Amino acid sequence: ETGVTQTPRHLVMGMTNKKSLKCEQHLGHNAMYWYKQSAKKPLELMFVYSLEERVENNSVPSRFSPECPNSSHLFLHLHTLQPEDSALYLCASSGDRDNSPLHFGNGTRLTVT
Amino acid sequence: AQSVAQPEDQVNVAEGNPLTVKCTYSVSGNPYLFWYVQYPNRGLQFLLKYITGDNLVKGSYGFEAEFNKSQTSFHLKKPSALVSDSALYFCAVSPRSNDYKLSFGAGTTVTVRA
Hints:
Chain A is mostly beta strands. Chain A has strands at 4-7, 10-13, 18-25, 31-37, 44-50, 53-57, 64-70, 73-79, 87-94, 103-104, 108-112.
């Protein structure tokens, strides 16, 4: 048990669908993150929330829309995705300090058809 | 902007032999440095970090890493590798600016053969 739970584990969606990824952390952390992991590439930071306020948005296309209703929950809303968006989407949480390690969930494997 | 380079896509070693996974970084000022490991179908797990002080950092599962400021390197090492160490390893760097800007390398796949 990692303390960070992501659902669903696998998702297949068409380009016209709307779906959401969910992340929940039970570690009492104040910061939550979405990362995109593609094979042979560095992890790409998508969004960061600190105390439910978005503090980082790395030029992510608007077809990805994050939501952080409280410090324990993080969502990634998806609509009109492209096949190149297929990847492993990882949620993470951490403490406030910049040397705090990230705690990752097991990810959602997304396939866009 | 900071960056991390892991020059080897793959490292293969025999069980019982020393294991080294290389990492170099670029960042403004003094860095925080991290190593993470990812097993198949799992998220990343924290192994160790360098903040300040002793250049040799010890972490989980018998791993250690050496910070070398002049060479801007932070290589991960284990004196005697196990088959269970086979996984994907990521190096990461953060500036000391408390702005959540942690940058990862592309990862190195380690295979330990019995």
